[in-house]
Amino acid sequence: RGRAASGAGTWTFDPVAPNRADQVTVPPGFTADLLIAWGDPVTRDAVRFDVRRQTARAARTQFGYNNDYVGLVPHPARRDRALLVVNHEYTDEPLMFPAGTHTPEEVLEVAIANHGMSVVEVQQGRRPGQWSVVSPRAARYNRRLHDRTTFEVTGPAAGDPRLRTTADPTGRRVLGTFNNCAGGTTPWGTVLSGEENFNQYFDGEVPAGRRESFARYGISGQGRGWSQVDERFDLAQEPNEPYRFGWVVEVDPLDPRSTPRKHSMLGRFKHEGANVTVARSGHVVAYMGDDERGDYLYRFVSRDRFDPRRSTRARRHNLTLLSAGTLSVARLTGDGTEDGRHDGTGEWIRLADWRRSYVPGMSLADVLIDTRLAADRVSPTRMDRPEDVEVNPVNGRVYVALTNNSQRGTALPADEANPVTRSMVRSSLDAPLTPASGNRNGYVLEMMPRRGDHTASDFTWDLMLVCGDPHAQETWFAGFPKQLVSPISCPDNVAFDAVGNLWVSTDGNALGSNDGLFRVPVDGPRRGQVHQFLTVPLGAETCGPFVTADQQAVLIAVQHPGEVDGASFEAPASTWPHTHAWPRPGVVVVRRA
Ligand code: FEO
Ligand code: CA
Ligand code: CA
Ligand code: CA
């Protein structure tokens, strides 16, 4: 506790001003060091990265592209080490390959292999907050999960005929995990990861009987050409392959030989991530967002209770907790805007448990596989792109990043939980604020479970932040004086420090600045005081974030640096981290200098 009191939660810093710099900009007195980046070795037999001679085989031994989720799991044997677990969400081929160096087929194969996850042993340095990568030869836990890694499906939908393919007649063993966005670390030391925009990887004609199901997930058959090198991505050959993605994945970094799992009980949608908390009853509760305009917030409550003992037997039990439980979806009701606040009550509507479906006309497997269609039938609240959802370990409230929704007020009517239909935006740093339709800057929603019980069927809620420029009328910072906050736009991922401050990273800044990371107190007199802690390079979004257990460092993933319209390997918009003439996504450690 003594260290926490001097850690990230109490750091004083001068907020970073909005900027367009091609670097990670941190406040004076702090330093940002690159920890690991695309192409760095992960496995013991890693192939040396050569941007002009990339192969899928090599990529499966190296740190993949577009790091997103960042977790640090305590090392089982050494206090000075930890296991870094990172998602590799997607690829941006024009920025990855020098022109003329690879055939179209090679580009596709390398791109596919750059997806997945990495587990990397990291070591604390001499100074507080310093971390470095352990040489893969000296690391026992390093692992690269990729398109050839076998995942086991758990829960009631495992083995369903819709999950069976030519390569897997059991419907229980899936190769690969794709488009893994955010995630969470469980109390038993595993990492959860959300398969998000998996719809884009399938080519060909949608089979007649699948039109409604596929359309609800945006599976149009207009894919990225992956079927040219792997026929399982061809809908004509394997019409069931899309049902094998869109799940929450659980990886056990403490056992490098373990089979990672896909948990059907947590439903299938465009999972942003999943964060687990242990309720007072001992049941584990996972909160989840479905990141699409107008989609929903979900909650899973386990059938069995968490075993806090540190035995092998307890851990084996805890590894089963996400296979059976109850899946629900949220409906939020406003109490009227006369009180000057966007707030109200909410309820969790049951969709299914491990024994049965609660949705008329749909079986248990139907609900878990076509979760969006099931939820549509019970009238949940259509939200503005629900992304990361996480419980604040200090105050027990739930925080939801709602990124934006350009269609709010047009295709989607406003409600008290989604009130903004016109936002002030800025096309560049020195441009004036101009109005745009819809919710362009996003929200942070706060949910209070009844009596603090995460298994309760109802809750109250409050829009803590209506993001944007503080000069814009629609913005709200929990009532904190607007002249004292940083502008913030498009919240995406959230984390907490040991004193309960919220840390929010952003993706898609609509105020002319690069994206960044912000710290916000959520209790006490400074509640709502948004301060910008850092900005990321040009074209990048800020992912992670992760506050280390000793509170001495904050980790972020710099995702898609240089992703700007028209940019290419030869004409990059960013060269961050400035190790080469082209950009490399990477993980950064920020600490006090
Ligand atoms: Fe991959 Fe919803 O961000
Ligand atoms: Ca109200
Ligand atoms: Ca995200
Ligand atoms: Ca994002």
TrEMBL record:
The chain holds residues 109 to 701 of 701 of the full protein. This is PhoX family phosphatase. Residues 1-20 are annotated as: Disordered. It comes from Nocardioides malaquae.
